[in-house]
Specification:
The complex is a heterodimer of chains A (400) and B (317). By secondary structure, chain A is mainly α. Chain A has 16 helices and 3 strands. Chain A folds into 2 domains: 267 residues, Fumarate Reductase Cytochrome B subunit (Up-down Bundle), CATH 1.20.950; 80 residues, no CATH class. Chain A has a 3-stranded antiparallel sheet with strand order 1-2-3. In chain A, helix 2 packs across helix 8. The longest helix of chain A is centred in the N-terminal third of the chain and has 32 residues. Chain A is rod-shaped and about 145 Å long. The termini of chain A are far apart. Chain B has 317 residues and is mainly α. Chain B folds into 4 domains: 102 residues, no CATH class; 52 residues, no CATH class; 112 residues, no CATH class; 47 residues. Chain B has 19 helices and 2 strands. Chain B has a two-stranded antiparallel ribbon. Classes of the chains: A mainly alpha (400), B mainly alpha (317). Chains A and B meet through helix 3, helix 5, helix 6, helix 7 and helix 8 of A and helix 1, helix 3, helix 9, helix 16 and helix 19 of B.
Chain lengths: 400, 317
Amino acid sequence: MSNIAEPMNGSPKQAETRKSYLRFSLSERVEHWIFISAFIVLGITGLVQRYSEYDISKWIVSAVGGVENLRWIHHAAAIITMLIVIYHIGAVGYRIYVQRARLTMLPVLNDVVSVYHSALYYLGIRKEPPQQGRYTFEEKVEYWAVVWGTVIMAVTGFMMWNPIATTKILPGQFIPAAKEAHGLEAVLAVLSILIWHMYQVFVKHFNKAMYTGEISEDEMLHIHPLELADIKAGTAKPPVTPEGKAKRRRIYLPIYAIAAAAMLVGVYFFIAFEETAIETIPPAEQAEVFVPFTPTPLPTPPPTPTPPPVTSLTWEGGMGALMEAKCVACHNSSSQLGGLDLSSYESALLGGNSGPAVIPGNPDDSTVIIVQSEGGHPGQFSDDELAQLLEWITDGAPQN
Amino acid sequence: MQTTLPSGEILYLSVDPEVFGHSIHGEQGYACIQCHTDITEFPHRPLEASTRRDVSLLYYQNCARCHQDKYDATLDSVHQQALENGNEEAALCVDCHGYHDVTDPNEPRSKSPETCERCHSLIYAEYAESVHGSALLGEGNPDVPTCIDCHGVHNVSGPSNPDFHLFSPQICAECHADEELMGKYGISTNVFDSYVSDFHGTTVIFEQQFPGQETNKPVCIDCHGVHNMQKVDQAESQVIQENLLATCQRCHPDASGNFADSWLGHYEPSLENFPAVYLVDLFYSIFIPAVLGFMVLFVFGDATRRLINRRREKKDE
């Protein structure tokens, strides 16, 4: 940015006391608003990635439909910013070389004096603020901070976008270092815009130059008095002949076209330099999942009931143990399946819902004999066991 | 006592009172018919099972009569999914807990992996070699996870469920962010936070907002190994320096040279580890306050001067 405010066209009478000056041309204003839009999008979509733990970050990621979409938007805004930078380089070059504009944005020693005098003025030591030209030190701080920030962001952004290519040349730790610099520079950029730029253009006084392009004579007098003096003296613009300008334009435009083409190729490389990661799901563990033991062991080992030998045909002498082995799993004191409990001599005599299980001396009416003789009962006695049982009951089913 | 099923398999009908008596249910005096609810009359109704598997399938839902919450949890499990897809081999209650010999499933602690081993023998073999499995099975160390600590108990979940993979960093963090537990072994508890602050972790945390999708960003197990994870200083570890690039290349096939060093390895950057990152942080920790401090001072100075001037102008009027 190195042009100069131009007096607005007015009637000859107004020429004496000009009311307003053109500060920013339409192209500069459009450039600024595109740049602002990209900056805001980059700031939001970038900072939510750096501060992922906050609810607002999660909300924003949800709102755009996921982090992949968010990154896509971030990258798109980065590309717009790069295009704006390429345009800006061309526009500045045009003004400097073709229009022979003065380098009004370049920091000079006098700016340091202005900073110092401003400080003294704030402290009440100097009575007047420093007199400044086309761009005040406040604006130069702003502009060069953006230049610095954009360079840092472009370099570190390229490193993160193309980590494989970067680590072919640089140490691996430069990638996380680039990520750290990218994030912290973003914090600095956003905060300095909020503190510095917002104060200068909205709070200090509402500056309409980026909306209308114009600035009033009064504003010129207070903010850019040296530029106003140059305009009044007719020395603001260096003398340029139309022939010289046309000649320089013929030289400049082809050179810029080549440079711009090279820069666009650079942008393309920025985006498509490498295939960083696969798009598919990476191969997972290859272990076979279902590989049972063969043969699958039975969950319960097959039981081999071996009732103790019958020593005498009494309950205590072996009949009780036989019941215990074959019957009590179902017909026990707690479950009493069919109302029957065969775990003790007394309860066996008592019987269940179908009548007494054991009727001493009367095997034909004893339920246990009736049921077992039919066969097929769970806990079926063997023929030998059934014969012993029959004999025991016939003998009066003694307990001892 | 036994019967032969239509399939030709033998079904034992006798229950060893000794075994049942020492089972949880036997000790507490539960009766046969409390599980065998179809036995209501005599003679019993014929068994509608043609294979031994049919018998298990017929009876296992009876567990829900007392253990409804556990049964309900199994309805979300991979085993239930397999069952619904027609795989009758899928584990039922009784396949893990046993039939008449049900005992405390967590005693001893190695019982759980050994139960899973019956069907997942190869995965068990990997686990047994891992840092976790060898500590449990070799040293009897109870601090390490068994199968169910990661996969869940009744609602057993695995890689067939995308969310299991997507949310797995939090499973690892349950132990690896526990200072008391990790302190015993001198393991950093910063591993989860450092993962989340890295590109991969940040992405996964955001992707967790949209459950049900596959992520191709690595979670803990993608680098450290799934069942065979090793101590990071073991030669077999996938993340030891010598093997790290190969691990990166599974997702970054073109990676070479220094690429693997771009991962901070869960370190907090310092002058010894990753000095470039440390110095960038240091630079900005000075540069940001310096720049913003200058701006705040000048904004404050300008605003104050303007207020003072305005007040004076009013006085003069």
